[in-house]
Write a structure and sequence with these properties.
mainly beta, seven-stranded antiparallel β-sheet, elongated
């Protein structure tokens, strides 16, 4: 389990295991990691942990957040990264070093704009040979273009295993009717500064988790909380005013 070590002026104050998917850092008492100092905003930052991966989000704090001496808004945490909030430091320790292949996913939040998602494919004749699935367009910050496509003759996944593939189809706005395949381990969706969520591909399915914004994602008309929510085939998800249908492609 990953943890953060809180220190000030070289003196270790405490160790905080990252036991929740979303943990907030700030001056106010309701935060998961409370730092009672006037240089720290009421809600200063948040750490989102999914499986073995964690990333840090500055919550529009007054004095900002530094990682390894550099100001950040959103940062994929790596083993031994040092987060600085005023005079305090939080050192990130991961028992299993997080893979870096998807690091770009956290720095390139997908913003739904015209011409940035591919149109839904037209129905092909039944007798036509099905080519291997192409990777998602690079416009979405895809860092996994080298992932091999599933073989055409691949057997159906075993019970309880993640589906071969999944996608979302945009239902409203300028991109209505278009699709985005969820080929990456983590796909971020939304509008930075307004509302951002992440869809994680796990061994037992796909999960949506709130990351940023006052409003939480809505699934089938129900507003979610801060915990991850497993998506089912044909669920309708609303993020930043954009409605999209999640569906499995087995």
């Amino acid at each position: 389990m990953a943890k953060m070590i809180l220190s000030m002026d070289g003196l270790v104050l405490k160790e905080i295991p990252l036991t929740k998917e979303r943990m907030t850092i700030g001056r106010k008492a309701h935060n998961d990691i409370q730092i009672d100092n006037l240089a720290i905003s009421g809600e200063h930052a948040a750490v989102v942990t999914i499986l073995n991966d964690s990333f840090l989000e500055d919550l529009n704090s007054t004095n900002g957040t530094l990682v390894n001496g550099q100001p950040i808004k959103k940062h994929f945490l790596k083993n031994n990264d040092v987060v600085e909030l005023g005079k305090y430091k939080l050192k990130y320790i991961a028992e299993q070093a997080a893979p870096v292949a998807d690091a770009g996913d956290f720095e390139k939040t997908m913003v739904l704009r015209p011409n940035m998602v591919r149109a839904a494919p037209a129905a092909a004749p039944a007798a036509a040979a099905a080519p291997a699935a192409a990777p998602a367009p690079k416009a979405f910050g895809d860092t996994q273009a080298g992932i091999p496509a599933q073989p055409a003759a691949a057997p159906a996944p075993a019970t309880g295993a993640a589906p071969v593939a999944a996608a979302i189809q945009i239902l409203n706005g300028a991109n209505a009717g278009r699709e985005l395949e969820l080929t990456k381990t983590l796909t971020t969706l939304g509008k930075p500064g307004v509302q951002v969520a992440v869809i994680a591909k796990r061994p037992h399915g796909f999960f949506v988790t709130h990351v940023e914004g006052a409003q939480f994602p809505i699934v089938n008309g129900k507003t979610l909380d801060a915990q991850a929510h497993q998506l089912s085939d044909h669920d309708v998800v609303e993020i930043a005013g954009i409605k999209m249908e999640f569906f499995l492609k087995t």
